[in-house]
Amino acid sequence: MDANYTLVSNVGDLPVIQPPPGAPTATATEYINVRTDPGFNYPVLFAAPPGATGEVSGNSADGRWWQVKISAPYGPNGMAWVSAGHVYTSNTDGVPVVDAPAPPDIPGTPPGLLPCVLVSQAPLDGASRFLAWQGKRRRSFVDKPSGLS
Fold first, then answer.
1. What is the tally of structural domains in the chain?
2. What's the CATH number where 70 sits?
């Protein structure tokens, strides 16, 4: 996400909770979505501006998300999650791993199936490419392979 192209709303009236001295913290390096749970598929509560700092209370099992304390009216139990790739942290060595709930269902997807997302129809180089699934492996072809209709 590039802050030059980000429209931010819902941030003007947020109360600021200052972390106590020496507490584990995460500071946003750019505008960052603050989410209900650790994952891009969870709802966004609000966007935090660059430089916003919050007290860290936990880390996801995969280390890609930090749980932070927020004002209770803005999130469940006064907790929310930020992506580790968009913050810098301090004093987080002893932060516990926090279990996340199961990811939310993707609307319109039958149970047990993963959605297929079309990223691009035409590569920039103009070549035709085809994707095919072979078991759990994705295969990409520059030209249409024989037997693929």
1. 1
2. 2.30.30.40
